[in-house]
Each structure stands twice: as C-alpha cells, then as structure tokens.
Amino acid sequence: TEIAVERRFVPESCPRAVRPGDFVRYHYLGAFPDGTRFDSSYDRGSTFNVFVGKGQLIAGMDQALVGMCVNERRFVKIPPKLAYGSEGVPGVIPPNAVLHFDVLLIDLWNSEDKVQIQTYFKPEKCPRTVQVSDFVRYHYNGTFLDGTLFDSSHNRMRTYDTYVGIGWLIPGMDQGLLGMCVGEKRIITIPPFLAYGEDGDGKEIPGQASLVFDVVLLDLHNPKDGIAIENQLVPESCERRSQTGDFLRYHYNGTLLDGTLFDSSYSRNHTYDTYVGKGYVIAGMDEGLLGVCTGEKRRIIIPPHLGYGEEGRGKIPGSAVLVFDIHVVDFHNPSDSVSITVNYKPSNCTVLSKKGDYLKYHYNASLLDGTLLDSTHSLGKTYNIVLGLGQVVLGMDMGLQDMCVGERRTVVIPPHLGYGEDGVEGEVPGSAVLVFDIELLELVSGLPEGYMFVWNGEVSPNLFEEIDQNHDGEVLLEEFSEYIQTQVDTGKGKLAPGFDFEKIVKNMFTNQDRDGNGKVTAEEFKLKDQEAKEEHDEL
C-alpha cells in the first residue's frame, strides 16, 4: 500500500534535496516486477522534466522524488493505488500493476532560485571589480548540475571575451560576473530561466537545464579607461623629465593583468630604445613614458584600446590589458648639446685649453644611470689628446674646451655627439648618453692652426743653407729631420705637441718636396708665410 524506496547511490556532497514545488530533470527505467521493461527515458535520449508535488506525476513518483540529491540513484516500488490503479494504461500498463522505477536525478531547481555564487579563491589585492559595461576576459568550464561537461574555454585555449551587463551574455552570467577581481575564481550556478530556458541552446544544452560555470577572471577594463600609472621608485634628484620628442632607453617587463609574462627587455639584455610622443610605440606607452626621470621605475597599465586592440599581437591576446614595469635608463633630445658642470676651478685659472693644445686628463665614464663604463684611474695613466682634432668623440672635444689645469668638471654628452646609434660593441650601448667626470692634469699649448712647427725667435736668413749641411744644393729627409731635431732640442723651435716626431717631420718635408723626388731644392723651399704671400700676390 506504500511506496518502497531503496537508495542505491547517494553522493558524498548533497547541498540541496528535492522539495515539493521543485522542478527536476531525471532519467529512469520503468519495469514490472518480473523485469519486463515498459518505459525508459534513456531510450528517448532525453530526461524527464517535471515539477514535483504539483500533480504532474503519479502520486508514488511525486513521493519518491522528494529528498533526492542530484546524482542520487533510487530504486522505487510503487503500488497500483499510487500508480495507475485498476485502470492501468491500455496497451502499456495492465490494471493493478506494481511498478518498479530505477531513477537517477540529473537536475534540480526552483522558480524562486537566484544565481548562486561560490568564491573559492580571491587575490589579496583587488583594486578593481567588474561593473556593468566593463569588458572582461575569462576562462571557464561549463557543466550541468550532475557534473557533465558541456563546454570549456580551456579546451579551446582561448578566453571568452565579452562586455558585462549589456545583454551579450545569458542573464545569470551577467549577474554572476559582477564584483569579480582579476585572478578571482568562483563557481556560478544559474537556473534555466536565467540561462537558456525551456528550449536550451539547440546544441549541447537541453531545455530546463541548470548550468554551473567554474570561472577564473583574467582581465578587466572599461572602454572609457585611460592608462594608469603607479610610481614605484622616483629618484630624489630629478633635474629633467621626459617630454614629447625625447629619445628614451628603458628596460621593461610586459605582463597581462593576471601576471602572465609576454615580453621582457631584460631577457634580451638590451634596452628598448624609442622616441616618445611620436607614435613609435603603442599609444598607451607613448603617454606613460612622458614625465619620467632617469632612474625612475613605474608601472604603466594600458587598456587594449590604447594597446594592441581586439586583434592582439604575438603572445598578446586580443582585448588584453597590458602591464609594463619599466626602468628608465636614460633619455635625451636630438636638439641637446653637451652639458658642462664645473665642480672645481683653481683660483689661478688664466691659461684655458683651446684647439690644438695637448691635454693630459683623468676621467670616469659612466651611463646616466650610473653604470661605470671606463676609468683612467683604474688603468693608472692619463688619457692624452690634441684638442679639437677628432681624437675623441665630438662631445668630448667640446667638453674639454676652456679648461684650466686642476679644473674638475662633469661633461654629459648626448649620443649624437658621442657614439651614436651603434655605440661601441661590448662597451657602450647604442644611443647612450655618456657622463664623464674629468680632471685636467696637464696642458701644453698648441701651435697656431695650420702650423706643425714654429720658431721661438728670429728665423735665419740663410735657413736653407743651414739645413743643407753638405752644401750640395739639395736637402734630404735625413738632413731635414736632424736639423729640426736640433732646433727643438736647443729651444729655437717648437713642434706641435701630441704628435709623433717622425710623422710631423716627414709631413713637413713632403710639403717642401713639391716635385716629389725625395729632395728639396732652394727653389722649392719656402716658409709658410712666404707661401701665403705668394698666393696673395697671385690672387
């Protein structure tokens, strides 16, 4: 006279059991006591979907389903008075038949249900949560209440990208994503009337199915977003900040909002070098690099419409927010000249360096970020040059002008006056600003421009005869060299400082040997002022 229920399988977790008024989806096998099957939902390939306790089922089944959990399996015996009674179902169920049902509950919901959210991981830092009209990128596994997988973005290896709260999603997902943080993981359970309803999606999701989405939020932005800047380290001394048109060298790590690294200049061991504000980089980076100091570290967060847009690029997915942690190594402007800061000047500073002077100085050479490149102190010897003759980079030739012995100065040289875009392989990076701390130790005054040798007194009227020691009317290189050496040794003449003696003398001799026969005659021999006078007369 009563139903008999045998619970053949009960899941360990049963967060909810069937109550009268609930809607259920279940599979069943219907048989008579002798085992003869009279019906099966499996044969139809579709669950039986019905409200419980509302008279839509035979009374015995209405009772048997109450208290069941999703994935629970029950074996139910229903007497005739709680089934089809003395009339039965013509051609299917005879009168007064006891019915056996093997039932597996697949789904369960109530018309008063709402979206259920279970957050099982939330990051410690959550600076922003999903709001209506935000654009999100997330991964998900979609299952039914019984755990059957119907869809997964992980399997497609691509996030699901969509706006939230404007009708692009089923209503339950629109609700379930609100308030999430990037990196948060939650389970969103959606009743069918907030999902695909009575008809399902026509593919994988049947009608009246509750849906369970296991979601991890990877990205979040709003189309109205601009870039966000977080200053991480700003040097105490910041004499200059970057402006439009400046050329920057910086290191960076590029990640997505979830921390996934997509690029790093450090891994290439080379800075990223570019103009700022000229469209050479993505719009968000162009903006984020303005106003930085050398040595500054900052985080620049760039929404996709100021980054790589809907299409993405390389390892960067479409519609991705980008996070750049940058370290500014140096910057300059193409209009920059040499910058000179005098750190010490002796009280007696009357003799100043000029073009042609021979200088001996010590220096420490570094980059703008303080990285040491070279130092004469470590070599234990000075650096020696003739000023203004291109023996050093142009910026150094400029920076050494008008110094006096004992003076110390800092010379900052932009790359176009230094080693340019190419730098010096293994020593000086391309497009690097150079900083030289200089101390001038010795200065030997040079000769007037164009002169390699000058007389300290009156020039002998019989100069050629004095040089032509064997009086054969011809001067050879050996005679010429010996005579010049004697004049220098006795203080009667002076050679241009900083040059090799033999090279100077040979150059002077070649200038006199006008026919190139290796001999200088009296007719060929002329002093520099005589050459200038003859040219003037000819003109």
From TrEMBL:
Region Disordered, residue ranges: 512-539
EC number(s) per entry: 5.2.1.8
Keyword Endoplasmic reticulum: yes
Family annotation (SMART domains): EFh (SM00054)
InterPro entries: EF-hand-dom_pair, EF_Hand_1_Ca_BS, EF_hand_dom, FKBP-like_isomerase, PPIase_dom_sf, PPIase_FKBP_dom
GO cellular component: endoplasmic reticulum
Limits of the PPIase FKBP-type domain: 21-109, 133-221, 245-332, 356-444
Domain of life: Eukaryota
Gene Ontology molecular function: any one: calcium ion binding
Catalyzed reactions per annotation: [protein]-peptidylproline (omega=180) = [protein]-peptidylproline (omega=0)
Residues in EF-hand domain copies: 455-490, 500-535
Alphabetized UniProt keyword annotations: Calcium, Endoplasmic reticulum, Glycoprotein, Isomerase, Metal-binding, Repeat, Rotamase, Signal
Enzyme class (EC, first level): isomerase
Protein location: Endoplasmic reticulum
PANTHER family in the cross-refs: PEPTIDYL-PROLYL CIS-TRANS ISOMERASE FKBP9, PEPTIDYLPROLYL ISOMERASE
Role played: PPIases accelerate the folding of proteins during protein synthesis.
Protein's UniProt name: peptidylprolyl isomerase
Source organism of the structure: Origma solitaria
Lineage: Eukaryota, Metazoa, Chordata, Craniata, Vertebrata
Gene encoding the protein: Fkbp9
